[in-house]
Design brief:
Elements (H helix, E strand, L loop, with lengths): L14 H6 L15 H4 L3 H39 L6 H15 L6
Amino acid sequence: MSKGSRLNKVSDWDLVEAHDLRQVTVEEPEKEQLPEALQGMSDKELKCSIGEKKKERESIKVQINQLSRQRDAYIRAKEQDVAGEPGLASVVLNNLRKQAKDKNFDVE
């Protein structure tokens, strides 16, 4: 789960998400509970600030989801590229067997 996931819910402590889910209005929280930057704002300014933060977060979520899809596609492509090649474990094991055999160890 990532920050871009719809499963990432933080409305119990996040004003922007709580406002979006209509769990709280801008009039409800006491000014002392808000961060310093928001304490001096009027209700109208606070609502505007919340709206701006929501838009900013939505943009970031879109970027996160796009990058996640690109990453997944890259990983799938790389896995297909190396599908026919031996993995690290088999290469190491084969080298160990060869070295052991060179030193006259019986390896089955």
